[in-house]
Amino acid sequence: MAHWGMYSASAADGEVVDIRPHAGDSSPSPALGNVPGSVKHRSRITGPSVRRGWLENGPGPTDRRGNDDYVAVTWDELTDLLAGELRRVIDRHGNEAIYGGSYGWASAGRFHHAQSQVHRFLNCLGGYTRSVNSYSTGATGVIMPHVVGAHWKMFSRSTSWKVIAAETDLLVAFGGVPAKNTSVNHGGTSDHPTESALDALRARGGEIVSVSPLRDDMHGAATWLAPVPGSDVAVMLGLAYVLAVENLHDTNFLDKYTTGYDTFERYLLGASDGIPKTPEWASAKSGIAAEAIVDLARSMASRRTLITVTWSLQRVKSGEQAPWMGITLASMLGQIGIPGGGFGHGYGSMNEPGLGPVPYPLPTLPQGLNPITAHIPVAAIADMLLGPGTEFDYNGRRMTYPDIKLVHWAGGNPFHHHQDLGRLRRAFGRPDTIVVHDPYWTPMAKHADIVVPSTTSLERNDLSCTRNDPLLVAMQQAVPRYADSRDDYDTFAVVARKMGVADGFTEGRTSGEWIEHLYDQWRGYLRSANVETPEFDEFWRAGSVRMATEEDLTLFADYREDPVSNALRTPSGRIEIFSEVIDGFGYQDCIGHPAWFEPVEWLNGGRAQHFPLHLIANQPRTRLHSQLDHGATSQASKVQGREPIRMHSVAAAARGVTDGDVVRVFNDRGACLAGVVVDDGMLDDVVQLSTGAWYDPLDPADTNSLCKHGNPNVLTPDVGASSLSQGSTGQHVLVQIERYDEALPPITAFDPPTMTVRSVG
Ligand code: PGD
């Protein structure tokens, strides 16, 4: 099982040579094609390694990270060095000085889950500074609990695809429903039903309107409205205005199930700020014709309508507003809680929304208790490292960044997920020590001082399952451990022993015993719910066990049915169109109700005079994030070895470039090369470059170096969505593009660093 789906593998000579998708998968992910050849790829870390400068000079801030040689050490040496450095930092600076936030998707599997392992290990040592929220839903994760009293429930208990296919007459999808993203699911998946559900909706006569700058954000036929990127909230306000002035809004629903509509309406109609949010006003912001907005609003009010908002719309400055305004608009239509109507968030952002949830707890490795209270919103890592002691706002609190001396990372690649990589590199120069566990020499591993070679999930046994999939799967080892790599669990167990906390960490179990223990524990839960499952050995032989999932869900149906007994976990118990709590925070950039905030990175602002193209830095279709970027499917998409950038023919012609050319994409933060694919399925001045090409600096000594390979995060802004959430805003950035006429530098991202012989022992 992988995040991109279930499959079986054939292996020869320690390498996967062929894979077969799960027979029950209706639309297997193309990313499966990256797996063959991945075990022994030259970018694997063959054994424990230490950065030469760290080994020779000891811990401390340095500008050599990302630009140094490595020295191979033995496992015993690595254990001594790692245990000694953790002990030094804890004794001298306290556990708060360890940043163990360690964000990242790592690989599927309930036991060998890298974050759970590193958190459990650090908790045994007395804790660490942690991170909260995610890069996926950084703004949503903070705003939605204020508005509907929940966050993850919006996805895991979303209206089922089956219900949408059968009941929805009009699907209005802000950000579309990009099928490429549904090919992945955190923790794995055994089926990909999105495309067939959309086909079934159409076959029934249902209509789809996709509001997105990219035509292919919607699978199959749809009315395509292409707004200026970043203007969706203005479009939604224009739609809401029509509903309000034409009396098409459902005042009964608003009275019974929501709070604060009146205050919002004063803003909508311009009574509170002097700006009525008319369709003409929305048109001026978005470029969508006012008549189209009026027609759509009327059409929405006349039919069973589901409004969806993708997660990408909240991965921008003021990202809280799109989901908040989406649910406000759906509240005005009054169809929330009715099958096929209402609101959805995250369809097309990951496979999970629309799939039936499992009604039991899943097998889970306990992470222990972290007594350290220091934490940061996850995307504030560079701010924290560069500004120890600095104050910042987060969700109504004034907090202070801790002084981090040691960064301990397992299972993530900040050079994929973070923004403004030049700034991140400077931030990574500040701590005394960076420890990275990864199977591959990713750019993050090449910035580490202590490099711990991990196995991949193909080299170990594990259990896999997710909240919204019926199968608990026996992930069976396909190949032996590569070279001198180790499971993260075994690494932590040995270091824990050295530091005197082995009992707490391992509880006396090997990894095999843990897997069986977690299964048996889970089996016990199910038995108490009168559900029988096979003994572990039988399960392992069979390869999977099927669980019942809840089908035919409608989001908030229970709330609609009984808003008193099933009150939402908000202060009012209702959907908060106006939040007194948020209003009370007094933030200028996130007020008490959904509102339009002019973006910085958008085509209608002053910055566009310098950088006139709007780049959408979205998720790739050929891989998961940066994982297996060297695989066959990902490599086949590259243009002259560079990440493809899609450009409209008008923008391409204006710059004298055509299909297959290499261009330099730049702004005042950085620059990267990319390979042109001309595509008119977008506005003239929109370009699209996915995340995930491994960062590959032309000059590793220069933190702001050109990336030869096409990583858009050298360009994106490292600013929080707002004072409320501080969520990541990596989705949108303004750029300029020019043809690259110099000799093409070779791609070196997948080459291991230079290994040297140590000069001091
Ligand atoms: P991955 O490439 O999945 O990216 O960012 P994330 O850091 O999750 O990195 C996972 C790493 O784990 C890989 O290096 C892999 O080799 C390693 N790994 C796999 N298995 C194991 C294991 O068993 N042990 C260890 N130690 N390591 C392992 C994803 C993040 O990026 C996310 S979720 C989103 S939604 C964001 N999206 C955007 C965006 O839309 N636009 C921009 N510009 N930037 C984004 N960044 C965010």
What's the arrangement of secondary structure elements?
Blueprint (H helix, E strand, L loop, with lengths): L6 E6 L2 E7 L27 E3 H6 L12 E3 L2 H19 L4 E2 L14 H11 L5 E3 L7 H9 L4 H4 L4 H7 L2 E5 L4 H4 L11 H10 L3 E5 L11 E3 L6 H14 L5 H7 E2 L1 H9 L9 H8 L3 H13 L2 E5 L11 H13 L8 E4 L29 E3 L3 H6 L4 E4 L2 E4 L5 E5 L3 H4 L3 H8 L4 E6 L11 E4 L8 E3 L6 E5 L12 H11 L3 H5 L4 H18 L7 H7 L1 E3 L10 H5 L13 E2 L3 H6 L27 E4 L15 H5 L7 E4 L1 H6 L7 E5 L4 E8 L7 E4 L42 E8 L15 E2 L5
Parallel strand pairs: 4-29, 5-16, 6-13, 7-8, 7-11, 8-9, 10-22, 11-12, 16-17, 17-18, 23-27, 24-26
Antiparallel strand pairs: 1-2, 3-4, 3-18, 14-15, 19-20, 20-21, 23-28, 24-27, 25-26, 25-28
Helix pairs in contact: 2-18, 3-18, 6-8, 9-12, 9-13, 9-14, 12-13
Bound molecules: ligand PGD.
Question: How much of the polypeptide forms β-strand, as a percent range?
Answer: 15-25%
Number of helices: 25
How many strands appear in the DSSP assignment? 29
Small ligands present:
ligand PGD
